[in-house]
């Protein structure tokens, strides 16, 4: 089987179909819980609209700061925990609609004064099953405490989901980390702004193509105190081709059907242009390595304990 024109998969592949709905929205940059709840009203309205327009969809995704916005001076007024009633409303909506949801939430972190810019995943029973803390905050503007790992969590229909957040995607390493950890879908909630429209397009396609994963990249729209988020949310196939994309500057829903089992098969294959297989088995054709591939890390960029500069 050929995905697009780039990646080949040998043999028979059976996979379930994952239906994903993305909400491109303009959040209120909240300074009080009343405004947070107004954002949650909007999120739930999008979820319900998706259920009517795309009945039976599996996964719903919001952009970065969808719940609390990004107030320039009063963000600490609206920090939540996983037990906050506002998060409880999202749990209830997922359980009621029988969908999984990925939401961007600023959360209090145990043992730290600064909150984390987090992506959480709630299953269709209303349970939080995944939490990711943004590893690469947008310096110097974003003063959230950074995370230290990129977890991959089983989702619906055979999906294995990693989340990264906005500026994370400007670092090639984290895309590879997510794929190396077993992700077949990488979800990227963002508040990506002008004048970086070209960077948005490049990084999402690069993340998908170089790691042979689906990329679900959901962006905000709207003007706030420091910048203008342009939208253009997109879902990208493992060959780097855009499956669907929202327009610029307006609230919007996009939907696509994905095939996560196909990505798993691709990562296991030793045919042409299967990068994750080659990365794990570098030099597999070398007799000195017994056909197993080089197991040591050869890249100085990651040798933090060595003499690399």
TrEMBL record:
UniProt entry tagged with the keyword Hydrolase: yes
Pfam families: CN_hydrolase (PF00795)
PROSITE patterns: CN_HYDROLASE
Keywords: Hydrolase
Record domain CN hydrolase: where: 18-260
One MF term in the entry's GO annotations: hydrolase activity, acting on carbon-nitrogen (but not peptide) bonds, in linear amides
Domain of life: Bacteria
Official protein name in the record: CN hydrolase domain-containing protein
Species whose genome carries this gene: Anaerotruncus massiliensis
């Amino acid at each position: 089987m050929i995905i697009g024109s780039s990646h080949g998969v040998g043999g028979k592949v059976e996979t379930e179909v994952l239906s994903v709905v993305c909400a491109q929205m303009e959040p209120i940059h909240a300074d009080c819980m009343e405004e947070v709840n107004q954002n949650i009203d909007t999120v739930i309205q999008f979820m319900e609209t998706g259920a009517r327009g795309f009945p039976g969809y599996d996964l719903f995704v919001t952009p970065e700061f969808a719940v609390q916005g990004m107030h320039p001076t009063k963000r600490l007024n609206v920090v939540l925990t996983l037990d906050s009633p506002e998060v409880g409303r999202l749990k209830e909506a997922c359980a009621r609609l029988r969908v999984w949801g990925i939401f961007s939430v600023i959360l209090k972190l145990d043992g730290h004064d600064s909150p984390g810019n987090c992506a959480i995943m709630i299953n269709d029973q209303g349970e939080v099953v995944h939490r990711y803390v943004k590893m690469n905050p947008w310096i110097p503007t974003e003063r959230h405490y950074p995370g230290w790992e990129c977890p991959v969590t089983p989702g619906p229909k055979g999906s294995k989901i990693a989340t990264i957040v906005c500026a994370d995607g400007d670092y090639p390493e984290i895309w590879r980390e997510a794929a190396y950890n077993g992700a077949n879908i990488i979800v990227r909630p963002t508040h990506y702004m002008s004048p970086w429209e070209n960077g948005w397009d490049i990084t999402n396609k690069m993340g998908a193509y170089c790691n042979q994963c689906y990329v679900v990249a959901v962006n905000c729209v709207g003007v706030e105190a420091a910048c203008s988020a342009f939208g253009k949310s997109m879902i990208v196939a493992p060959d780097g081709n855009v499956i669907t994309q929202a327009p610029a500057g307006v609230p919007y829903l996009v939907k696509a059907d994905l095939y996560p089992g196909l990505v798993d098969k691709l990562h296991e294959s030793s045919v042409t242009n299967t990068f994750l297989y080659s990365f794990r088995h570098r030099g597999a054709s070398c007799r000195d390595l017994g056909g197993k591939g080089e197991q040591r890390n050869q890249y100085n960029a990651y040798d933090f304990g060595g003499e690399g500069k």
